[in-house]
Amino acid sequence: MSKKLPMTVTGAAKLRAELQALKTKARPRIIEAIAEARMHGDLKENSEYHAAREQQSFTEGRIADIEAKLANAQIIDVTKLLSSERVVFGCTVLLNEEDSKDRKRYQIVGEDEAEIRDSKISFNSPIARALIGKLVGDTVIVKTPGGIKRYEIIDVQYI
Asked: 45-70: per-residue pLDDT in tens?
């Protein structure tokens, strides 16, 4: 039995939208490209045919990957959780880095949703692992590639 992995409602919706687009747009377009390439004759030396088949393989693999991820997802709607000052999966955390006094805001999300440019970090990242379970006012110490960082938890939002 596969282990259920947490995913936010937004992350699941994005995967479902990608799956829908792959099945309804990309797949028919590739099938059409393969059919057209076959009409050009000898398939051994037909680069259009081979490119379309390669694209088909990639698309079918991505479809299978998304379906497996959704089947094994534990979708968590953070807005339905009882709000508290505790850091949990899906919440947004405001941190104050103690050395530089920089404020950082992160949302703790599933592995496939993580995007540092959008301030979304994986629940498996070192900083998220250090934060989960802590409360507003707590200080956490995180080993980062740039050295050890100390953060104070300023706010926790369930949005």
From this structure: 778 888 999 999 999 999 999 999 99
Which stretches of the chain are DSSP H helices?
A: 9-21, 27-38, 47-71, 126-131
Where exactly does CATH 1.10.287.180 map onto the chain?
A: 5-76
Question: Which contacts qualify for 112-119: CB closer than 8 Å, 24 or more apart?
Answer: 112/7, 112/11, 112/15, 112/69, 113/7, 113/8, 113/10, 113/11, 113/14
Parts of the chain belonging to CATH 3.10.50.30: 78-157
In degrees, rounded to 5, the angle at the alpha carbon of residue 64 between the alpha carbons of residues 55 and 34 is 25
pLDDT one-digit tens code per residue, 142-159: 998 888 999 999 999 998
CATH architecture of 5-76: Orthogonal Bundle (1.10)
Q: Which CATH architecture has domain 78-157?
A: Roll (3.10)
